[in-house]
Write a structure and sequence with these properties.
Layout (H helix, E strand, L loop, with lengths): L1 H43 L9 H22 L10 H25 L5 H8 L2 H11 L7 H19 L6 H25 L8 H23 L1 H6 L7 H24 L2 H20 L1
Length: 285
């Protein structure tokens, strides 16, 4: 009896430890996700740090993340790379990288025009976009009840947009574009990679996708932002601001890796709702 009681005690202790670890991973992910969003808003907002160059900021993030991912995969060998041929990279990873680069560019651009809380409300359309694009690309079958649920979400976002005090039409177009490209990217990952048995975690994703994103972002950057930056003689690269911002962005990817690996994708989605509440509450302060 004594041994049974001891075993039960150690079992419950193990369960408690696992639950505490799960909550810790969730808390870390919420904190880092919150930090990256608010930090990006701070840098890009003309009324705050006043550095309205979303392509440049995205390229800084991608350069930093690509370098650290390379170190983790190739130098320290902490993460196993995925076996990938040149043809597979060009046919599967490159299109995903193109979609990701445009999604990040538009998403960061929206911070210049819209409040953080309103952006989070517009991001609630992501399930609608993913389902709609999945149906269009014949990845998902059309279901009337699912579409009704999606339309109710859209209606809620529409009501929120109508009541938004800082409504900016161009900002809304940018954010909706970001949602559309990100939703397409998520569906294409299913079609181009998952269907072929290729699973990329956040680190290997950065290892393969970040250099590709850099290449795609370089083209608009040369024509849109580089001429303006070249004329801005007063600008000096702030290593503290951009270094810590990029570090937070990379840490967020690590947190996603930990959270999904140790809990589940569903846990991350539920935690995302809590994060959105916190961001909306923070923006009201």
């Amino acid at each position: 009896m004594g041994k049974g009681g001891s075993g039960s005690g150690s079992l419950s202790e193990g369960v408690v430890k696992k639950i505490l670890l799960s909550y810790t991973y969730v808390a870390i992910w919420i904190f880092l996700s919150f930090t990256v969003i608010v930090y990006n808003k701070y840098i890009l907002d003309r009324k705050l740090y006043n550095w309205p160059f979303p392509i440049s900021l995205t390229m800084i993030h991608m350069s930093f993340c690509a370098a650290l991912a390379f170190i983790l995969v190739k130098v320290l060998k902490l993460v196993e790379p995925v076996t990938m041929s040149r043809d597979l990279y060009l046919s599967s990873v490159v299109p995903i990288g193109a979609l990701y680069s445009v999604s990040l560019w538009l998403s960061n651009s929206a911070y210049i025009y819209l409040s953080v809380s309103f952006i989070q409300m517009l991001k609630a359309l992501m399930p609608v976009a993913v389902y709609s694009i999945g149906v269009l690309l014949k990845k998902d079958g059309f279901k009337a009840d699912t579409m009704v649920n999606m339309l109710s979400i859209s209606l809620g976002v529409g009501v929120a947009a109508y009541g938004e005090a800082k409504f900016d039409a161009w900002g809304v177009v940018l954010q909706l574009g970001a949602v559309a490209f990100e939703a397409t990217r998520l569906v294409m990952i299913q079609i181009l990679l998952t269907s072929k048995g290729i699973q990329l975690n956040p680190i290997t994703s950065l290892y393969y996708v970040a250099p590709c994103c850099l290449a795609f972002l370089f083209v608009p950057w040369i024509f849109v932002e580089f001429p303006v930056l070249r004329e801005t003689s007063s600008f000096h690269f702030d290593f503290v601001i951009f270094g810590t911002n990029s570090l937070c962005a990379f840490a967020l990817n690590l947190a996603v890796f930990l959270l999904v690996g140790k809990t589940s994708a569903l846990t991350m989605n539920v935690a995302g709702v809590v994060k959105d509440w916190l961001l909306i509450a923070f923006s009201w302060l």
